[in-house]
Amino acid sequence: MRGRRKASAGPLPQRDGIDAVRVRLPEDPEGRWSSVGAYLVDRFGGAIGGERVAAMLDAGRFVGADGGAVRGGEPYTVGLSLWFHRDFAAEEPVPFPIGIVYRDAHLVVADKPHFLATTPRGRHITETAVARLRRELGVPALQPAHRLDRLTAGLVLFVVRPEERGAYQTLFRDRLVSKEYEAVAPYDPELELPRTVRSRIVKERGVLAAREEPGEANSESRVELVEARGGLGRYRLVPATGRTHQLRVHMNALGVPIVHDPLYPVVEPEAEGAVEDFSRPLQLLARRLEFTDPVSGEPRRFESGLRLSAWPEG
């Protein structure tokens, strides 16, 4: 949607851990918009509704850089920045806490539970790890350095200071972080392990499941069997790359799909629905992160305190 920019706190405080949306009025060579309200209704009316946009203007919900309300009748001014908060649909709370593995002035390392998205996307906005941690810790500037799939539990690294986020993101981009996962999946005594799996994975926008196809490999995972009992195996997974659903795709390709995976080997009906079955979490856990801290230069190693329910200890 033209004219819309990334969320920015600006003059409005966060609401439910979510920044306000910033809008910058663009050039108007054709003179289409005589007023701020005309532009906002034109550009956001399709998503929000023209009457709703007008009502928000009347209520003073669009503000300028000084925090003062901007009314719909104000003259159109190229470059003017406005902020507003979106209205969010009700979300089903994820009934699991976020564990804090480590926290200092620079980092928060969290144990994200199953079913909780890392960042706002789609129908998951306020019920996300970053929004909940901002509220619970009182750190409004908190941002993730990487993302963990919504159905996967385990370690996520968050950055406290915005100016340091790029340094930590670069670690993940340049594959300078050693990551280890744990999974529970069927045990196949004829499957030769350990092995390294390489394949070409394609994930299309709007399609739930990724797929493998012929071509140059763009993904690599090391798969090891740790132990087996009762027809199940506990596996150690070490990804060298970070394609969407990579570990899930590779385990499925080996004939041992991860327990409670709603997408592989087939897309189950609940995968497309809005109602979660919290009793069947995907048995995949981000177990370990290890790297050299780009700010302090110190070696860092973090381990999850979570356990996979399909593999009780003892």
Annotate the secondary structure layout:
Blueprint: E1 4-7, E2 21-24, H1 36-48, H2 50-58, E3 81-84, E4 99-103, E5 107-112, H3 129-137, E6 143-144, E7 153-159, H4 165-173, E8 178-186, E9 195-202, E10 211-213, E11 219-229, E12 232-239, H5 246-253, E13 284-292, E14 299-303
Parallel strand pairs: 7-13
Antiparallel strand pairs: 1-2, 2-3, 4-5, 5-7, 6-7, 8-12, 8-13, 9-10, 9-11, 11-12, 13-14
Catalytic activity: a uridine in RNA = a pseudouridine in RNA
InterPro entries: PsdUridine_synth_cat_dom_sf, PsdUridine_synth_RluA-like_CS, PsdUridine_synth_RsuA/RluA, RluA_PseudoU_synthase
Domain Pseudouridine synthase RsuA/RluA-like: 106-253
Question: What would your notes on this structure say?
Answer:
- This protein has five helices and 14 strands.
- The chain is α+β, with helices and mostly antiparallel strands.
- It holds the Pfam family PseudoU_synth_2.
- This is RNA pseudouridylate synthase.
Structural key phrases:
314 residues, alpha+beta, 11-stranded mixed sheet, 3-stranded antiparallel sheet, 5 helices, 27% strand, disordered N terminus
Could you write a compact summary of the structure shown?
This protein is 15% helix and 27% strand. The protein has helices at residues 36-48, 50-58, 129-137, 165-173, 246-253; strands spanning 4-7, 21-24, 81-84, 99-103, 107-112, 143-144, 153-159, 178-186, 195-202, 211-213, 219-229, 232-239, 284-292, 299-303.
Contiguous helical run count: 5
Mean pLDDT: 93
CA-CA gap between termini: 54 Å
Along the chain, the helix and strand elements come as: EEHHEEEHEEHEEEEEHEE
Given the C-alpha coordinates, what overall shape results?
elongated
Q: What's the total number of strands?
A: 14
- Give the proportion of residues in helices: 10-25%
Low-confidence parts: 1-7
Give me the oligomer status.
single chain
Biggest pleated sheet: 11 strands, mixed
Query: Structural class of the helix and strand makeup?
Result: alpha+beta
Strand content: 25-35%
Pfam family, one: PseudoU_synth_2
Catalytic activity: a uridine in RNA = a pseudouridine in RNA
Protein name: RNA pseudouridylate synthase
Domain Pseudouridine synthase RsuA/RluA-like: 106-253
